[in-house]
Amino acid sequence: MSLSAILLAGLLAATAEPAACSAPADLSATPLAAWTQTDGAADAAIVPGRPVTLAMADGAAARTLTIAAAGRYGVAADGRVWIDLVAHGKPLTSAEHGHGPACSGIRKIVWFDLTPGTYDVTLSKAATDRVRVLVVQGR
Q: Is the pTM of this model over 0.85?
């Protein structure tokens, strides 16, 4: 197999949709347990531990987030979307990023090391008109 064929196969595998699940993932013993709860108000600030589905305008949305305790926080989303946290007008550097547990409905999680304060959660380049988001503390 040629190098270009191998690279193409890897690219296709990385962008492929996840396999269908026979049952949803059990998130009860994880920081992501709130993912299965009813959504909070979409027009209000994002609250850690409360999922919310945001309408995207031209692929983007933003909401404020207030953090009371220092720690590592994850911003989880169910769709293809770029996730940033902004403080004092500048995007923060993420600590790590990855995918949610298999069959959880969480497509992406971006983790940030945060101190108490108010941040802007900005979503952009969304592939859908709605994105469900959950902010959680810890891993």
A: no
